[in-house]
Amino acid sequence: MRHYEIVFIVHPDQSEQVPAMIERYRGIVTAKNGNVHRVEDWGRRQLAYLIQKVHKAHYVLMNVECDQEILNDLEYAFKFSDAILRHLIVRMEGPVTEPSPMLQQKERADVAEDLSDDKGRSATANESDKSPEKAESESDAAGAGEGEKEAGTANTSV
Questions:
Q1: 90 phi, psi to nearest 5 deg
Q2: E-assigned strands of 11-129?
Q3: What pLDDT is stored for residue 122 in this prediction?
Q4: b/e 52-81 (16+ beta carbons within 10 angstroms → b)
């Protein structure tokens, strides 16, 4: 059996159906003694150009080990599915199980987002740690300084 990398693009209106589609295609492969080494759902992404008047689509990557009969069944399923905008099947030298660069990039973005959320939470936590009296005295001091500045500018403009 040979190893293949399959990428298919799903119409954005059918994004909710992607998990069921993945299971259906996984079932086609495993039903005839094929192996699925990797499945990655890249989510909805911007297309480089319009396909059927659509700007965004849902991307899925699969790495499988199968024979030609299974591959023909998958191609047939892709070809006659209205939800699949495009598909690409590439023969690989061996099984690929490590995360793809696209998934690694997505994970890095998620981690960076989580870190920025944590920083935002810690800043609001520091503000809420102040006692009401401290916050009030700080605002009074700031207000007094502003009043002095205003009074000083009023005298010079006369």
A1: -125, 135
A2: 35-51, 54-66, 84-92
A3: 58
A4: eeeeebbbbbbbbbbeeebbebbeebbeeb
